[in-house]
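Quick one, tokens below. Sequence please?
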């Protein structure tokens, strides 16, 4: 009764389960370019709320250099985006920077990139929510300030809930905010530049003259250093560009084409907005004002020139800033889309617990969403939601990932130069991108190391250390399982011409089997040894767990089905060759326990005199880590079946 009630409540809150094998399921959860732009591009576009301001303020009194800054910002966005188009082409299965570093440089480079991305996505959630709340609360009375942290925590929990329902559901809810931001900011930027556009020739001439004058006084090295410092401190503008390549597996077919269109939308909108805002600062002579963002100062001046009257002008400014703050909240959603995807890829490679590649009934990586969301909540509690502190933590890891990805592309194009007719162009593009990304990384790390950058390095190093420990454990376990497979799974199992007939009334042994044939044969041989000549029928239950990798590419689900069928056929044939009647049941789903329970009830109806058997790894040095890293399916099934009046025996398989 309680299980039924919980199931109904879950369906109401998170929506009904989806059939992972239904042809329409993939069509439903896949994103077209527009929705991908909304869901994955919000992180990059929202950075225009703080990235250009940081760069402009770093120029100090030498604001004439902002003209170069606007051009460099737009060019850098397109440069990095074009480089990541190569990532989309080479890795259409997704994984982005993690997959590039893993396959083109090495697994440990991939680990560093993956750890940096995980930390960066957690900070994306934290800083975006905190910045958005700051923007919204700045419009209210001072008494609201004490409630900011509570609001940040509540909004983070709401985002987690929306994403547990599914990506499209969260994106549809947030789309009006995204479009509102685009419309208001495009209007203000276009109008602001058009009104003062006649001044641009004079500004260009003055900029060139002032630059030469400054170089004559202080030297070109000073001018270059000042510009590069401002350019690097505005590096937050480029965050989020990698989100498309990280989540290419979530896009609608053809994925590469959809990914490139999404990347174009993202690059065009970010380059226009970021460079346009910097030009507004210059054209409208915006200067920092206490209690206001530089965007607010510039937008107020532009809106005032419309001569709408004090009330309508204030209303338009309020709407614009509200949408800007709300878009930061949409950007936080990118962390809950991209972070779990990185965790799932790392889990498939053994760097993270296997649970992080599991899907919920709504076909989302629920454990990844939960870990990313709660990690962001811990960061918010630790920092008190202070955006200045979070910004320092946030600004480094994304360029570490950029650098490793572009280094991997350089290596790839150089190695394949004899096979690719356009290798030189792509190699040159990757080299330029590598120089830009690594320069920003080094300058930012040096500038901000003692302001909190050391904390980012410490957190990322801790994640790397944990991943190394997890990988070592899985490798040791896999080595022992491989020895068992080699020893037990080579027993002959060819089909027989006349298999023995099933007797539904006879004693029946029901085996819950996995992909490891060695573990399955271990269980079968122990049953034959402990209960000689007792069971006349062998029944095998196998559930194909549909996880994030199952949607990794064309034919992945079909491959899973073939693998499960092959394993079942092996056990049935082995039983027949040994004179035992046998049958297999197959099922597929996101919850292995639920599917096994359904199969068990079905088997009991057909074979009433049945006993269930399963194996469980027993570690000589058992601890909380081994229990966390390995599922407890056997124990869970034993409890469920006992409550249903069925008998189940768990046979241990020792692992040293």
């Amino acid at each position: 009764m309680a299980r039924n009630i919980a199931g109904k409540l879950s369906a109401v809150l998170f929506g009904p389960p989806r059939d992972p094998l239904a042809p329409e399921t993939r069509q439903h959860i896949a994103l077209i370019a527009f929705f991908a732009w909304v869901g994955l591009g919000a992180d990059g576009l929202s950075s225009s709320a703080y990235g250009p301001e940081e760069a402009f303020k770093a120029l100090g009194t030498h604001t004439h250099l902002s003209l170069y800054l606007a051009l460099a910002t737009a060019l850098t966005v397109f440069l990095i985006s074009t480089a990541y188009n190569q990532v989309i082409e080479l890795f259409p299965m997704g994984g982005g920077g993690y997959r590039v570093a893993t396959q083109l440089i090495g697994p440990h480079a991939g680990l560093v990139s993956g750890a940096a991305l995980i930390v960066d996505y957690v900070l994306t959630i934290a800083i975006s929510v905190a910045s958005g709340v700051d923007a919204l609360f700045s419009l209210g009375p001072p008494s609201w300030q004490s409630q900011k942290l509570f609001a940040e925590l509540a909004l983070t929990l709401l985002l987690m809930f929306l994403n547990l329902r599914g990506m499209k559901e969260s994106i549809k809810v947030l789309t009006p905010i995204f479009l509102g931001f685009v419309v208001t900011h495009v209007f203000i930027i276009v109008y602001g530049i058009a009104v003062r556009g006649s001044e641009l020739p004079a500004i260009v001439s003055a900029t060139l003259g002032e630059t030469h004058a400054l170089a004559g006084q202080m030297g070109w090295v000073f001018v270059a250093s000042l510009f590069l410092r401002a350019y690097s401190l505005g590096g937050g503008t480029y965050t989020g560009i990698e989100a498309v390549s990280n989540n290419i597996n979530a896009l609608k077919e053809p994925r590469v084409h959809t990914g490139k269109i999404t990347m174009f939308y993202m690059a065009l909108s970010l380059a226009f907005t970021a460079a346009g805002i910097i030009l507004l600062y210059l054209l409208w002579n915006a200067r920092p004002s206490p209690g206001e963002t530089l965007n607010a100062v510039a937008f107020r001046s532009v809106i005032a020139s419309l001569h709408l009257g004090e009330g309508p002008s204030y209303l338009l400014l309020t709407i614009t800033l509200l949408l800007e703050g709300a878009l930061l909240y949409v950007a936080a959603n990118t962390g809950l889309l991209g972070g779990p995807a990185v965790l799932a890829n790392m889990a498939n490679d053994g760097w993270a617990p296997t649970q992080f590649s599991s899907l919920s009934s709504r076909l989302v990586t629920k454990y990844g969403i939960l870990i990313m969301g709660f990690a962001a909540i811990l960061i918010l509690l630790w920092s008190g939601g202070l955006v200045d502190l979070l910004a320092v933590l946030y600004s480094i890891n994304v360029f570490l990932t950029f650098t490793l990805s572009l280094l991997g592309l350089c290596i790839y194009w150089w190695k394949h130069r004899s096979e690719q007719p356009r290798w030189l162009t792509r190699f040159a593009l990757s080299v330029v991108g590598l120089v830009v990304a690594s320069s920003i990384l080094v300058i930012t790390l040096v500038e901000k190391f003692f302001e909190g950058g050391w904390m980012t390095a410490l957190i990322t190093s801790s994640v790397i250390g944990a991943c190394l420990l997890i990988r070592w454990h899985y490798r040791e376990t896999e080595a022992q399982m491989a020895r068992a497979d080699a020893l037990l799974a080579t027993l002959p199992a060819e089909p027989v011409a006349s298999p023995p007939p099933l007797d539904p009334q006879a004693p029946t042994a029901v085996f819950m089997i996995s992909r490891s044939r060695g573990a399955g044969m271990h269980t079968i041989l122990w049953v034959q040894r402990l209960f000689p000549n007792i069971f006349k029928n062998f029944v095998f239950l196998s559930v194909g767990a549909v996880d994030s990798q199952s949607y990794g590419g064309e034919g992945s689900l079909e491959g899973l089905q073939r693998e499960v069928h092959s394993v079942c056929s092996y056990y049935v044939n082995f039983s027949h060759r040994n004179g035992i009647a046998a049958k297999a049941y197959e099922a597929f789903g996101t919850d292995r326990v639920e599917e096994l329970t359904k199969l068990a009830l079905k088997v009991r109806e057909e074979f009433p005199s049945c006993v269930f058997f399963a194996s469980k790894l027993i570690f000589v040095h058992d601890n909380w880590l081994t229990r966390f890293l390995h599922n407890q399916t056997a124990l869970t099934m034993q409890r469920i079946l006992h409550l249903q009046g069925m008998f189940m025996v768990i046979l241990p398989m020792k692992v040293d």
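The two ends are 41 Å apart (CA to CA). Confidence is low (pLDDT under 50) at residues 5-16, 18-29, 550-555.
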